Amino acid sequence: MTDRAYQLQVEPYQRPFRRPLTTRYGTWAVREGAIITLRSTNGAMRQGEIAPLEWFGSESLATALTFCQQFNGRITAAQIAQIPDRYPCCQFAFEMALAGFTPERYSDAPNRDRGLATQRYHIAALLPTGPTAINHWRELYAQGYRSFKWKIGVTDMIDEQIWCQRLYQQLPQDCQLRLDANASLSVRDSEQWLTYLADKSIEYLEQPLHSDCFDAMQILAEKYATPIALDESIANLQQINTCYERGWQGLYVIKPAIVGSPQRLTEFVQQHQIDTVFSSVFETEIGYAAALNLAQSLRTNDRALGFGTNEWWDNQRVSKDL
Ligand SMILES: O=C(O)CCC(=O)c1ccccc1C(=O)O
Ligand SMILES: [Mg+2]
């Protein structure tokens, strides 16, 4: 087999959110990443996106850029297949760009249009953190969203539960609410939240405890009615595998842009019966489309996709010819 070579171009970008996102990690106002472009010898061109999430343990943008530099503007398919696991975001960017040259793989051209995506797929909208979420959902509801995600564990628990109550009471019957604690709660606070949620129909509570606390999350999952989803605990393929081996039966929130090799992710998801929710990480339209295509091809349930991040940008692209 011939090892095809591609011309490689890497362009870092910075893109501000419409409004900053507050999580327990702090305030996030600008997305930084890089767009990679592969050009084949016959002039065909495909792009991929490196969208790191260092606080989830991925490589940093600086590390990814240094990694890319060593190729000196030229990379082969074999080199792409050998990108080490410590560069999961690079694995995603390069493998997805390369897959784009083989049209049948993860390809669904209209997905490149984020405006269309909202209408075509069942997507959970990400609400602003804190009391702003109250009433804010109405605008998203009018746009067609019926599933909402709200961050918790950011400020005083009693305040958050009062806001949660208001939000929950406001949401129409045809809506679902999922909560994301971003690994910020203690065991005691988690139990308090789960007791508080017991009489409510909440889709799931995402990552209540730090990723070190696997056993404690297992116990929470067994003891309380609200399903528990792992996110920070399964930020890469090795961690997904470890949690699976340890018997995790709850939900797996999978972020294709940071989890690592799309090919090995595909193999894992096809070989194991796991309850998944695929999620975006504020990629630009290039990474977003690639992650959504992968999510569409791998999904095994009809849960809303965690791809509501597109609403957090000012200029939603309408053009399809990226
Ligand atoms: O999952 C979603 O629905 C939205 C995406 C999201 O919440 C998110 C986006 C970027 C980084 C981390 C997270 C998270 O799930 O914690
Ligand atoms: Mg999360």
UniProtKB/TrEMBL annotation:
<comment type="pathway">
    <text>Cofactor biosynthesis; phylloquinone biosynthesis.</text>
</comment>
<comment type="function">
    <text>Converts 2-succinyl-6-hydroxy-2,4-cyclohexadiene-1-carboxylate (SHCHC) to 2-succinylbenzoate (OSB).</text>
</comment>
<dbReference type="InterPro" id="IPR029017">
    <property type="entry name" value="Enolase-like_N"/>
</dbReference>
<feature type="binding site">
    <location>
        <position position="180"/>
    </location>
    <ligand>
        <name>Mg(2+)</name>
    </ligand>
</feature>
<keyword id="KW-0456">Lyase</keyword>
<comment type="pathway">
    <text>Quinol/quinone metabolism; 1,4-dihydroxy-2-naphthoate biosynthesis; 1,4-dihydroxy-2-naphthoate from chorismate: step 4/7.</text>
</comment>
<dbReference type="Pfam" id="PF13378">
    <property type="entry name" value="MR_MLE_C"/>
</dbReference>
<dbReference type="GO" id="GO:0042372">
    <property type="term" value="P:phylloquinone biosynthetic process"/>
</dbReference>
<comment type="similarity">
    <text>Belongs to the mandelate racemase/muconate lactonizing enzyme family. MenC type 1 subfamily.</text>
</comment>
<feature type="active site" description="Proton acceptor">
    <location>
        <position position="255"/>
    </location>
</feature>
<keyword id="KW-0460">Magnesium</keyword>
<dbReference type="InterPro" id="IPR036849">
    <property type="entry name" value="Enolase-like_C_sf"/>
</dbReference>
<feature type="domain" description="Mandelate racemase/muconate lactonizing enzyme C-terminal">
    <location>
        <begin position="131"/>
        <end position="227"/>
    </location>
</feature>
<dbReference type="Pfam" id="PF21508">
    <property type="entry name" value="MenC_N"/>
</dbReference>
<feature type="binding site">
    <location>
        <position position="231"/>
    </location>
    <ligand>
        <name>Mg(2+)</name>
    </ligand>
</feature>
<dbReference type="InterPro" id="IPR041338">
    <property type="entry name" value="OSBS_N"/>
</dbReference>
<feature type="active site" description="Proton donor">
    <location>
        <position position="151"/>
    </location>
</feature>
<dbReference type="GO" id="GO:0043748">
    <property type="term" value="F:O-succinylbenzoate synthase activity"/>
</dbReference>
<dbReference type="InterPro" id="IPR013342">
    <property type="entry name" value="Mandelate_racemase_C"/>
</dbReference>
<dbReference type="InterPro" id="IPR010196">
    <property type="entry name" value="OSB_synthase_MenC1"/>
</dbReference>
<dbReference type="InterPro" id="IPR029065">
    <property type="entry name" value="Enolase_C-like"/>
</dbReference>
<keyword id="KW-0479">Metal-binding</keyword>
<feature type="binding site">
    <location>
        <position position="206"/>
    </location>
    <ligand>
        <name>Mg(2+)</name>
    </ligand>
</feature>
<protein>
    <recommendedName>
        <fullName>o-succinylbenzoate synthase</fullName>
        <ecNumber>4.2.1.113</ecNumber>
    </recommendedName>
</protein>
<dbReference type="GO" id="GO:0000287">
    <property type="term" value="F:magnesium ion binding"/>
</dbReference>
<dbReference type="GO" id="GO:0009234">
    <property type="term" value="P:menaquinone biosynthetic process"/>
</dbReference>
